[in-house]
Protein backbone atom coordinates (compact mmCIF):
# COMPACT_ATOMS: atom_id res chain seq x y z
CA UNK A 1 0.00 0.00 0.00
CA UNK A 2 1.13 3.55 -0.75
CA UNK A 3 2.02 5.29 2.49
CA UNK A 4 3.51 8.61 3.53
CA UNK A 5 4.87 9.94 6.77
CA UNK A 6 3.11 12.85 8.43
CA UNK A 7 4.98 14.97 10.98
CA UNK A 8 3.16 17.30 13.35
CA UNK A 9 5.66 19.89 14.56
CA UNK A 10 4.27 21.43 17.72
CA UNK A 11 5.86 23.76 20.24
CA UNK A 12 5.70 21.11 22.95
CA UNK A 13 5.36 17.82 21.11
CA UNK A 14 6.74 16.38 17.88
CA UNK A 15 4.63 13.55 16.42
CA UNK A 16 5.22 11.38 13.39
CA UNK A 17 3.05 8.68 11.81
CA UNK A 18 3.02 6.33 8.85
CA UNK A 19 -0.31 7.03 7.15
CA UNK A 20 -1.97 5.02 4.39
CA UNK A 21 -3.86 6.46 1.44
CA UNK A 22 -7.08 5.59 3.32
CA UNK A 23 -6.06 7.85 6.23
CA UNK A 24 -5.23 4.93 8.50
CA UNK A 25 -2.34 5.35 10.95
CA UNK A 26 -0.05 2.31 10.60
CA UNK A 27 2.71 3.33 13.02
CA UNK A 28 3.42 6.36 15.15
CA UNK A 29 5.99 7.84 17.49
CA UNK A 30 6.40 11.07 19.39
CA UNK A 31 8.82 13.01 21.54
CA UNK A 32 9.07 16.34 23.37
CA UNK A 33 10.09 18.99 20.83
CA UNK A 34 13.59 20.42 21.36
CA UNK A 35 11.93 23.81 20.96
CA UNK A 36 14.81 25.82 22.42
CA UNK A 37 17.60 24.13 20.44
CA UNK A 38 16.99 25.46 16.94
CA UNK A 39 15.94 23.88 13.64
CA UNK A 40 18.88 21.48 13.19
CA UNK A 41 18.14 19.76 16.51
CA UNK A 42 14.43 19.42 15.72
CA UNK A 43 15.13 18.06 12.23
CA UNK A 44 17.46 15.49 13.85
CA UNK A 45 14.53 14.52 16.12
CA UNK A 46 12.34 14.12 13.04
CA UNK A 47 14.94 11.80 11.48
CA UNK A 48 15.01 9.75 14.69
CA UNK A 49 11.19 9.38 14.74
CA UNK A 50 11.10 8.49 11.03
CA UNK A 51 13.85 5.90 11.61
CA UNK A 52 11.65 4.29 14.28
CA UNK A 53 8.42 4.07 12.26
CA UNK A 54 9.43 3.82 8.58
CA UNK A 55 11.06 0.34 8.42
CA UNK A 56 8.82 -2.16 6.65
CA UNK A 57 6.74 0.51 4.90
CA UNK A 58 7.04 1.70 1.29
CA UNK A 59 7.15 5.41 2.14
CA UNK A 60 6.76 7.74 -0.87
CA UNK A 61 7.29 11.04 0.91
CA UNK A 62 6.99 13.15 4.03
CA UNK A 63 4.63 15.99 4.90
CA UNK A 64 5.24 18.36 7.81
CA UNK A 65 2.65 20.53 9.52
CA UNK A 66 4.45 23.43 11.16
CA UNK A 67 3.54 26.57 13.05
CA UNK A 68 3.51 29.54 10.71
CA UNK A 69 3.49 31.88 8.99
CA UNK A 70 5.20 29.76 6.38
CA UNK A 71 5.46 29.70 2.61
CA UNK A 72 4.18 26.26 1.60
CA UNK A 73 5.22 26.56 -2.05
CA UNK A 74 8.77 27.60 -1.15
CA UNK A 75 8.97 25.14 1.76
CA UNK A 76 10.12 27.88 4.12
CA UNK A 77 8.99 28.50 7.71
CA UNK A 78 8.96 32.30 7.90
CA UNK A 79 8.47 32.45 11.66
CA UNK A 80 7.40 29.99 14.32
CA UNK A 81 6.78 31.85 17.56
CA UNK A 82 6.58 28.67 19.67
CA UNK A 83 10.03 27.49 18.46
CA UNK A 84 13.29 29.29 19.29
CA UNK A 85 15.42 30.37 16.33
CA UNK A 86 12.92 29.46 13.62
CA UNK A 87 13.11 32.46 11.28
CA UNK A 88 13.20 31.91 7.51
CA UNK A 89 14.05 28.22 7.88
CA UNK A 90 14.06 26.25 4.57
CA UNK A 91 12.46 23.32 6.37
CA UNK A 92 11.46 21.30 3.30
CA UNK A 93 14.98 21.39 1.81
CA UNK A 94 16.71 20.69 5.15
CA UNK A 95 14.38 17.79 5.99
CA UNK A 96 14.73 16.33 2.47
CA UNK A 97 18.51 16.33 2.80
CA UNK A 98 18.29 14.67 6.20
CA UNK A 99 15.54 12.12 5.46
CA UNK A 100 16.34 11.27 1.84
CA UNK A 101 12.66 11.56 0.91
CA UNK A 102 10.61 14.27 -0.82
CA UNK A 103 9.23 16.68 1.80
CA UNK A 104 6.33 19.13 1.59
CA UNK A 105 5.23 21.48 4.35
CA UNK A 106 2.16 23.50 5.21
CA UNK A 107 0.92 25.28 8.31
CA UNK A 108 -0.58 23.25 11.13
CA UNK A 109 -4.13 24.61 10.77
CA UNK A 110 -4.12 23.92 7.03
CA UNK A 111 -3.03 20.31 7.44
CA UNK A 112 -5.66 19.74 10.14
CA UNK A 113 -8.24 21.18 7.72
CA UNK A 114 -7.05 18.76 5.03
CA UNK A 115 -7.36 15.80 7.39
CA UNK A 116 -10.87 16.73 8.59
CA UNK A 117 -11.95 17.29 4.99
CA UNK A 118 -10.62 14.01 3.59
CA UNK A 119 -11.18 11.66 6.53
CA UNK A 120 -13.00 13.51 9.31
CA UNK A 121 -16.09 15.63 9.88
CA UNK A 122 -15.98 17.27 6.43
CA UNK A 123 -15.72 14.11 4.30
CA UNK A 124 -17.24 14.46 0.84
CA UNK A 125 -17.72 18.24 0.93
CA UNK A 126 -16.37 20.74 -1.64
CA UNK A 127 -16.42 23.80 0.62
CA UNK A 128 -15.45 23.66 4.27
CA UNK A 129 -13.91 25.94 6.87
CA UNK A 130 -11.89 24.40 9.69
CA UNK A 131 -11.43 26.46 12.85
CA UNK A 132 -9.19 25.46 15.72
CA UNK A 133 -9.87 27.21 19.02
CA UNK A 134 -7.23 26.51 21.67
CA UNK A 135 -4.46 28.83 22.94
CA UNK A 136 -5.02 30.79 19.71
CA UNK A 137 -7.48 30.61 16.84
CA UNK A 138 -6.33 29.27 13.49
CA UNK A 139 -8.06 28.03 10.42
CA UNK A 140 -7.90 26.32 7.07
CA UNK A 141 -10.29 26.88 4.19
CA UNK A 142 -11.26 24.33 1.54
CA UNK A 143 -12.92 26.02 -1.42
CA UNK A 144 -13.98 24.22 -4.62
CA UNK A 145 -12.23 21.09 -3.37
CA UNK A 146 -8.89 22.80 -2.79
CA UNK A 147 -7.02 24.25 0.16
CA UNK A 148 -6.92 28.04 -0.07
CA UNK A 149 -3.36 29.43 0.22
CA UNK A 150 -3.23 33.02 -1.05
CA UNK A 151 -0.10 35.11 -1.37
CA UNK A 152 2.80 33.53 0.48
CA UNK A 153 0.34 30.97 1.99
CA UNK A 154 -1.00 33.74 4.21
CA UNK A 155 -4.72 33.18 3.58
CA UNK A 156 -7.21 32.40 6.33
CA UNK A 157 -5.47 33.93 9.35
CA UNK A 158 -8.97 33.96 10.76
CA UNK A 159 -7.90 34.45 14.38
CA UNK A 160 -6.78 37.96 13.52
CA UNK A 161 -9.94 39.31 11.97
CA UNK A 162 -11.03 42.23 14.13
CA UNK A 163 -14.50 41.61 15.52
CA UNK A 164 -14.83 44.38 18.10
CA UNK A 165 -13.42 47.77 18.96
CA UNK A 166 -13.10 46.66 22.57
CA UNK A 167 -9.50 47.63 23.42
CA UNK A 168 -8.29 44.09 24.09
CA UNK A 169 -4.75 43.53 22.83
CA UNK A 170 -4.00 40.46 20.71
CA UNK A 171 -0.69 38.56 20.69
CA UNK A 172 -0.19 39.99 17.17
CA UNK A 173 -0.22 43.53 18.57
CA UNK A 174 -3.57 44.62 17.12
CA UNK A 175 -6.78 45.35 19.03
CA UNK A 176 -9.99 43.36 19.07
CA UNK A 177 -8.86 40.25 17.14
CA UNK A 178 -11.17 37.24 17.30
CA UNK A 179 -8.35 35.23 18.94
CA UNK A 180 -7.94 37.83 21.69
CA UNK A 181 -11.65 37.58 22.51
CA UNK A 182 -12.51 33.93 21.93
CA UNK A 183 -9.43 31.68 22.29
CA UNK A 184 -9.06 29.56 25.44
CA UNK A 185 -6.91 32.04 27.41
CA UNK A 186 -9.49 34.81 26.90
CA UNK A 187 -12.24 32.63 28.38
CA UNK A 188 -9.93 31.61 31.23
CA UNK A 189 -9.09 35.24 31.95
CA UNK A 190 -12.73 36.37 31.97
CA UNK A 191 -13.48 33.51 34.36
CA UNK A 192 -10.55 34.37 36.62
CA UNK A 193 -11.61 38.03 36.69
CA UNK A 194 -15.02 37.11 38.14
CA UNK A 195 -13.12 36.32 41.36
CA UNK A 196 -15.35 33.28 41.95
CA UNK A 197 -12.66 30.58 41.79
CA UNK A 198 -9.10 31.99 41.69
CA UNK A 199 -7.11 31.33 38.51
CA UNK A 200 -9.10 29.06 36.17
CA UNK A 201 -8.75 27.83 32.58
CA UNK A 202 -11.26 27.39 29.76
CA UNK A 203 -11.41 23.69 30.63
CA UNK A 204 -12.28 24.49 34.26
CA UNK A 205 -15.13 26.74 33.10
CA UNK A 206 -16.44 23.94 30.93
CA UNK A 207 -16.39 21.50 33.87
CA UNK A 208 -18.03 24.02 36.22
CA UNK A 209 -20.78 24.74 33.69
CA UNK A 210 -21.38 21.02 33.26
CA UNK A 211 -21.72 20.71 37.04
CA UNK A 212 -24.48 23.35 36.96
CA UNK A 213 -22.56 26.48 37.99
CA UNK A 214 -24.57 29.52 36.83
CA UNK A 215 -21.57 31.87 36.55
CA UNK A 216 -19.68 29.35 34.42
CA UNK A 217 -22.76 28.92 32.22
CA UNK A 218 -22.91 32.69 31.74
CA UNK A 219 -19.21 32.74 30.79
CA UNK A 220 -19.79 29.98 28.23
CA UNK A 221 -22.71 31.96 26.80
CA UNK A 222 -20.39 34.94 26.37
CA UNK A 223 -17.77 32.70 24.75
CA UNK A 224 -20.48 31.38 22.43
CA UNK A 225 -21.38 34.94 21.45
CA UNK A 226 -17.78 35.76 20.42
CA UNK A 227 -17.42 32.47 18.59
CA UNK A 228 -20.77 32.97 16.85
CA UNK A 229 -19.81 36.43 15.59
CA UNK A 230 -16.62 35.00 14.08
CA UNK A 231 -18.46 32.05 12.55
CA UNK A 232 -21.01 34.41 10.95
CA UNK A 233 -18.11 36.33 9.37
CA UNK A 234 -16.62 33.08 8.04
CA UNK A 235 -19.99 32.06 6.56
CA UNK A 236 -20.23 35.34 4.66
CA UNK A 237 -16.59 35.27 3.52
CA UNK A 238 -16.18 31.69 2.37
CA UNK A 239 -19.68 30.22 1.90
CA UNK A 240 -18.72 26.81 3.32
CA UNK A 241 -21.09 23.86 3.48
CA UNK A 242 -19.88 23.22 7.03
CA UNK A 243 -17.74 24.82 9.72
CA UNK A 244 -15.64 22.19 11.50
CA UNK A 245 -14.37 23.19 14.94
CA UNK A 246 -11.32 21.60 16.57
CA UNK A 247 -8.97 22.51 19.43
CA UNK A 248 -9.52 22.28 23.16
CA UNK A 249 -12.38 24.79 23.34
CA UNK A 250 -14.38 22.69 20.85
CA UNK A 251 -15.06 20.32 23.75
CA UNK A 252 -17.49 22.98 25.02
CA UNK A 253 -19.34 23.04 21.69
CA UNK A 254 -22.36 21.02 22.88
CA UNK A 255 -22.88 23.39 25.82
CA UNK A 256 -22.54 26.48 23.57
CA UNK A 257 -24.43 25.25 20.52
CA UNK A 258 -27.78 26.95 21.20
CA UNK A 259 -26.13 30.31 21.91
CA UNK A 260 -23.86 30.06 18.85
CA UNK A 261 -26.84 29.27 16.65
CA UNK A 262 -28.77 32.22 18.07
CA UNK A 263 -25.89 34.58 17.19
CA UNK A 264 -25.68 33.16 13.68
CA UNK A 265 -29.44 33.63 13.17
CA UNK A 266 -28.99 37.25 14.21
CA UNK A 267 -25.71 38.05 12.42
CA UNK A 268 -25.78 35.99 9.23
CA UNK A 269 -27.96 36.68 6.20
CA UNK A 270 -30.72 34.09 5.70
CA UNK A 271 -28.93 32.16 2.93
CA UNK A 272 -26.05 31.35 5.31
CA UNK A 273 -27.93 30.38 8.46
CA UNK A 274 -28.46 26.65 7.86
CA UNK A 275 -24.74 25.75 7.68
CA UNK A 276 -23.89 23.14 10.33
CA UNK A 277 -21.23 23.91 12.95
CA UNK A 278 -19.69 20.52 13.70
CA UNK A 279 -17.00 19.29 16.11
CA UNK A 280 -13.82 17.94 14.49
CA UNK A 281 -13.66 14.15 14.34
CA UNK A 282 -9.95 13.29 14.31
CA UNK A 283 -8.65 15.03 17.46
CA UNK A 284 -4.84 15.12 17.78
CA UNK A 285 -4.47 12.69 14.87
CA UNK A 286 -5.56 15.39 12.40
CA UNK A 287 -2.05 16.90 12.56
CA UNK A 288 -0.13 13.82 11.38
CA UNK A 289 -2.83 12.56 9.00
CA UNK A 290 -3.16 15.96 7.29
CA UNK A 291 0.62 16.34 7.07
CA UNK A 292 0.89 12.93 5.39
CA UNK A 293 -1.79 14.00 2.91
CA UNK A 294 0.66 16.64 1.63
CA UNK A 295 2.84 13.78 0.39
CA UNK A 296 0.12 11.36 -0.76
CA UNK A 297 -1.27 11.48 -4.31
ZN1 LIG B 1 -4.35 39.37 16.30
Topology overview:
Elements: E1 3-9, E2 13-20, E3 25-32, H1 39-53, E4 59-66, E5 70-71, E6 76-79, E7 87-89, H2 91-99, E8 103-107, H3 108-119, E9 128-133, E10 137-143, E11 146-147, H4 178-182, H5 184-193, H6 202-210, H7 214-238, E12 242-246, H8 253-267, E13 277-279, H9 285-293
Parallel strand pairs: 1-4, 4-8, 9-12, 12-13
Antiparallel strand pairs: 1-2, 2-3, 5-6, 6-7, 9-10, 10-11
Bound molecules: zinc ion.
Residues 160, 170, 172, 174, 177, 179 line the site of zinc ion.
Walk me through the structure.
α1 (39-53) packs across α2, α5 (184-193) crosses α6 (202-210) and α7 (214-238) crosses α8 (253-267). It contains nine helices and 13 strands. The strands form three sheets. The protein has a five-stranded mixed β-sheet with strand order 3-2-1-4-8. A five-stranded mixed β-sheet has the order 11-10-9-12-13, sandwiched between helices. The protein has two domains: 3-112 and 284-293, Nucleotidyltransferase, domain 5; 123-279, ATPase, nucleotide binding domain (Nucleotidyltransferase, domain 5). β5 (70-71) and β6 form a beta hairpin. Helix content is 37%, strand content 23%. By secondary structure, the chain is an alpha/beta fold. Zinc ion is lined by residues 160, 170, 172, 174, 177, 179.
Amino acid sequence: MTVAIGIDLGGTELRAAVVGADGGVLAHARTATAALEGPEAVIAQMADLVGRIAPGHAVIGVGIGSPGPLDAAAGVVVQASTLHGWDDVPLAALAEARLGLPVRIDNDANVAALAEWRFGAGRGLRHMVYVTVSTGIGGGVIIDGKLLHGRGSLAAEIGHMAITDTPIRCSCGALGCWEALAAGPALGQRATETGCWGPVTARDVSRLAEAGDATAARLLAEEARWLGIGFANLLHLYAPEMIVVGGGVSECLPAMRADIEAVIRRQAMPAYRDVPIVAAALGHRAGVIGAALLALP
